[in-house]
Amino acid sequence: MSSIDESADEVIFPLENSEPVFRGLRASWYVEGEIDPVAFIRRPSPKDEKGLSVDMRCEMEHIYSSFSCKAIAGLITEAVVAIEQLNIEPDEPQHANITGLPYREDDEKLAEDLASALTDLCYVAWEKPKKIS
Question: Do the beta carbons of residue 86 and residue 51 sit within 8 Å?
Fold first, then answer.
């Protein structure tokens, strides 16, 4: 099954269970090799209306060159959708949203619990090289 982006006439195929999705990590979200669960909290409304933004089917360079990040977290689709209420919905050929995450202001405990669960599932797919002094 695929969806069609009417504006660009592009067919967007659903993710396979084994496919990874990626989230760029700001410096404050990745400190001393540890990923802060806040990286998986939706920004206050009206931002992140479609869900939590992730990249897919792209090179790491695409992510870190378009988003100033210190590292990139990877998540396997099957692990994300195994969490009750979460799904990954592609909306562009190289972009998707993790849906089902509440805004923190709507349900702080659930938002933080799900963010922690996603943090436990993720891995570091890319890390900005350290400067040699």
Answer: no
